[in-house]
Amino acid sequence: MSASSTALRPAAAMLGLSIREVSRALRDGRVSATELCRKCINQIQRTRYLNAFITITEETAMEQAQRADNRLRTGKPLGPLDGIPFSVKDNFCTENIETTCASSMLKGYVPPFNATVVQKLLDQGAVLVGKTNLDEFAMGAGSTDGVFGPVHNPWSYTSLYREQCTGDPDSDWAITGGSSGGSAAAVASLSSFLALGSDTGGSTRNPGSLCGVVALKPTYGLLSRHGLIPLVNSMDVPGIMTRSVHDAATVLRILQGRDERDSTTVEAPSTPPSLPEHFDIRDICVGIPKEYHAPGLSKDILSQWSRVAAMFEQAGARVQEVSLPHTQHSIVCYHVLCCCEVASNMARFDGLEYGHRSKVDSSTDAMYATTRHEGFNNVVRRRILSGNYFLLKSNYERYFVKAQQVRRLIAEDFKNVFRSGIDVVLTPTTLNDAARYSDFIQEDNRTRSAQEDVFTQPVNMAGLPAVTVPTALSHRGLPIGLQLIGQTLQDWKLLTVAHWMEQNVNFPTIHLHGESNESELNRSVRERTHTIGS
Amino acid sequence: MATGLPQMVGVVGLEVHAQIQSTSKLFSGSHVRFLAPPNSLVSHFDASLPGTLPVLNRRCVEAAVLTGLALNCTINRKSLFDRKHYFYADMPAGYQITQQRVPIAVNGILVYSYFEGHRRNQVVTKSVKIKQIQLEQDSGKSLHDDEQSQTLIDLNRAGVGLMELVMEPEMCCGEEAAAAVRELQLILQALGTCQANMAEGQLRVDANVSVHRPGEPLGVRTEVKNINSVRHLAKAIDYEIQRQMEVLQSAGKVLNETRGFDSKSGNTIPMRDKEGLQDYRFMPEPNLPPLFVYESEASLPAGVDPAQVVLIDRLSAQLPELPSVKRTRLVEKYGMLQEHSFTLVNEDGLMDYFENVVQTAKAEPRKVIGWVIKELMGNLNSQNLKVSQSPISPCALAELINLVEAGHISSSTAKQVFQEMWKAPEKTVGQIVKEQDLWMINDKEELQQICKRIVDSHPEEVQIIRGGNTKVLNKLMGKVQRETKGRTDPVQVRAILEKMVS
């Protein structure tokens, strides 16, 4: 349709810009919102093999872009996001747009309302291009366990990765991490300038790190959860994925704040219009937690961790070893609390009011049982079973109460560190770079989650803000990110430090293999479309 | 039968669910209305759509605090919400949000009275401890269509705010429980926190019943449900106590079970017990922060808007006159019998009616009481009307009483006029009296003539009276009354007749 404009300006050049840059291009009339939207949709189509999207909202997106153009043309944009294409993880409710949680249970479910964070973006004129893939109900760390199939890591389609791998390129691809793998892939593959994920134990930061994008998990309660289909209410936060820290800050500023529909939200601290351009890193004290030298930490990641710590130190920041002694118990407690809330939250899926309903109707109980058996995958069912076990009257003290007590200790660990004068804590985000899909599925979901979430979930237990910043490529050519953890409601300060770090690490931009060769891309689209939605 | 086991006594505790009178539900903005079209009052949250969150309705919290204050409870400054899990078709989320661990109010007391003795005029006053008042969600309603073997669900009620009041097992029979619930109803209605109509389900009472010998541990209890009036509550409890005694007497065992009351037979029947060994898997509700209630504006933390919080002193100031205080006041102010004060207060609107009449009537309150309790209530009860539906206004009744007091009509005529007023409320008292020619004959001449006519036409009776049997004078008086259709003052007539026959 818009072949001429694509020919005039290389798509990747425009799509690879940051929000700040493309927003300026929109205002300057160098590109229109409809052109930009069309480019993103084309890019989504071109990269269908990534399986990043469950739903593409082309029609409504073009309408929204048209309205943005009307505003931009009259010089009255709504704000920095007016006309900017974005995508949303398919566990956020979107009005009149199917929201599946990548589960048979919610296939065909069309919510009658928008999640608050989605509404806020739409109110700013941002253009929703699609709903992204995930692990079923966000339970997973690979984006491999959803009913629509696994998401492929865009970086495993770069020349660098391809040159090093020996196997068949069709099977030798890497996972995105998860559970917000579709959102991470959408931002990494330049299909969206911004994507919403959700982060319960690392679900935004883990794929953000493995896909080489900036992924922010804000302070618990800073962003509304209204309309986010819950995993663990006491830990869930909407996550922000962008290609720059500055963009993440722009989006945070728009999304943060109290929502009367979510009683756990808090008033946002006053925030300046943008991150400071000049900022003295010598005022900052960076903590390096010794417990994060975990078994299984890859050499590549360890060396990046050391490199960035040294970088801070050389720039004059104070870098000091700190201790978070209860970290080792965190993942076990996380699993107990997670399963308990999952068991509870999933109770509503009984096939009566909405969602899948089994044809078995010999009795109400039989209908419940088969509906739930048919609707949920093994991972969800196992967590429900475990959660209900932990919540039994006879087990409650031993599991739930214990886990909550340890949770307080973990939160206390962080408080002590910050009380000692530390501003941010620097840690790896993951143990390794992205695993090959064929390797990843050797272990079950439970084991994988325990491994993958080890550095991320303590932050959720404590409700703190954390951001992963892409740092370098591994020897396999896959991204490595490092995590910065901040104090409660100090998200802005956290991003300020992350911004400094981003400017100093020189993370490369992505070049998808064969991007220059239109025909090869098309071939690969044709070949891989069979995996979509299967 | 009971005489066979004189030493056994019943032990009764109550669990009362009171639907909070508020315009919207406990955690959503949906309206609350009885008899609305099915599923017309259902928000996204009420239907448990995924991604929706509860938002606490302050009005419901205030209702619970007011109720707690009226029942002398300790109001917890911080209370918590929990999830109670069970699958039921009319419980869409698969759990109920309730207050299991720390409820909003605890340790209260309810004072109630009932009447004993042959004429049921001896007041017995007792009290029962209120263990706690907790806020929780109501469920929807399931309608079972057995013919087509399907279940229809109406979620209008789902999520309506309830106060669950737990009364300790300190009552011993149906009458006590009924009196306690009646008093609770009056308190809730006075507070305006619950309409408390049992038949409409605004007040649901489950009774925990057991029997034991005093001094021994409590017996195994049963829970009796499906009780839809105070009268049935008393019946159900007494039946259950009797039943358990008989079971034990015949060396049987009382089972810990749920039983339903069958109002037709007056029996309790074991219910299919779906909750037999249910483990509710309680867990803290993660979407609601702790509920804070503050003493006064002065005790608010900085930055908290007083308009947005629940303040105890503000609510205390709003407490209306409670039923027990009303009764004491009636007895003291009007010198009425205690039992009359119960009748006036326990009947919705009757006390106000009475006080309105007293204000305009030029009669002693004691006389007014008779009119209100005998004539008014007699008529209302026979036609099953509420006080507010009375065709005779307090003003009209006062006017009538004033005519009697002024000697314009006799009291027997007045009763006749009262019935006419009931039938024709559009007419004034004066109109009715005039139309039916019921004014009292106060003219001496006229009275003399009437009496003379009667005396003249009854020579035999006059003879007897003169012979010393003065009782027969009453017969003559009756004749005068009949002749004048009761429009004479008996005292005057007697005096005239006595003179004539002497």
UniProtKB/TrEMBL annotation, chain A:
Q: What is the lineage of its organism?
A: Eukaryota, Metazoa, Chordata, Craniata, Vertebrata
Please give the catalytic activity noted in the UniProt record. Answer: L-glutamyl-tRNA(Gln) + L-glutamine + ATP + H2O = L-glutaminyl-tRNA(Gln) + L-glutamate + ADP + phosphate + H(+)
| Protein name, UniProt field | Glutamyl-tRNA(Gln) amidotransferase subunit A, mitochondrial
Enzyme Commission number(s) from the entry? 6.3.5.7
User: Looking at the UniProt record for this protein, which Gene Ontology cellular component terms does it annotate, in alphabetical order?
Assistant: glutamyl-tRNA(Gln) amidotransferase complex; mitochondrion
Q: What does this protein do?
A: Allows the formation of correctly charged Gln-tRNA(Gln) through the transamidation of misacylated Glu-tRNA(Gln) in the mitochondria. The reaction takes place in the presence of glutamine and ATP through an activated gamma-phospho-Glu-tRNA(Gln).
Annotated HAMAP family: GatA (MF_00120)
Active-site residues per Swiss-Prot or TrEMBL entry: K89, S179, S203
Q: Keywords of this protein's UniProt record, alphabetized?
A: ATP-binding, Ligase, Mitochondrion, Nucleotide-binding, Protein biosynthesis
**What family does the database annotate?**
Belongs to the amidase family. GatA subfamily.
Quote the subunit structure annotation.
Subunit of the heterotrimeric GatCAB amidotransferase (AdT) complex, composed of A (QRSL1), B (GATB) and C (GATC) subunits.
Name the gene that codes for it.
qrsl1
The entry lists its GO molecular-function terms as: ATP binding; glutaminyl-tRNA synthase (glutamine-hydrolyzing) activity
The answer to keyword Lyase applying to this record is: no
Task: Say which species the protein is native to.
Answer: Carassius auratus (Goldfish)
UniProtKB/TrEMBL annotation, chain B:
> Among the entry's GO cellular component annotations, what is one?
mitochondrion
Q: Which residues form the Asn/Gln amidotransferase domain?
A: 352-501
Indicate yes or no for the key word Transcription.
no
Task: List the InterPro entries.
Answer: Asn/Gln-tRNA_amidoTrfase_suB/E, Asn/Gln-tRNA_Trfase_suB/E_cat, Asn/Gln_amidotransferase, Asn/Gln_tRNA_amidoTrase-B-like, GatB, GatB_C_1, GatB_Yqey_C_2, Gln_synth/guanido_kin_cat_dom
Q: Name one GO molecular function term.
A: ATP binding
Question: What EC number(s) has UniProt assigned to this enzyme?
Answer: 6.3.5.-
Reactions catalysed according to its record: L-aspartyl-tRNA(Asn) + L-glutamine + ATP + H2O = L-asparaginyl-tRNA(Asn) + L-glutamate + ADP + phosphate + 2 H(+); L-glutamyl-tRNA(Gln) + L-glutamine + ATP + H2O = L-glutaminyl-tRNA(Gln) + L-glutamate + ADP + phosphate + H(+)
GO biological process terms, alphabetically, are: glutaminyl-tRNAGln biosynthesis via transamidation; mitochondrial translation
* Chain ranges passing through the membrane: none
Instruction: Return the SMART domains for the record.
Output: GatB_Yqey
Q: Where is the signal peptide?
A: none
The entry's localization annotation reads: Mitochondrion
Tell me which SUPFAM superfamilies the record gives.
GatB/YqeY motif, Glutamine synthetase/guanido kinase
**UniProt entry keywords in alphabetical sequence:** ATP-binding, Ligase, Mitochondrion, Nucleotide-binding, Protein biosynthesis
Pfam families from the UniProt entry: GatB_N, GatB_Yqey
Note whether Nucleotide-binding occurs among the keywords: yes
Q: Which HAMAP family match?
A: GatB
Q: Give the record's subunit note.
A: Subunit of the heterotrimeric GatCAB amidotransferase (AdT) complex, composed of A (QRSL1), B (GATB) and C (GATC) subunits.
What role is this protein assigned?
A: Allows the formation of correctly charged Gln-tRNA(Gln) through the transamidation of misacylated Glu-tRNA(Gln) in the mitochondria. The reaction takes place in the presence of glutamine and ATP through an activated gamma-phospho-Glu-tRNA(Gln).
Concerning its family, UniProt says:
Belongs to the GatB/GatE family. GatB subfamily.
Protein name as annotated:
Glutamyl-tRNA(Gln) amidotransferase subunit B, mitochondrial
Q: What gene name is listed for this protein?
A: gatb
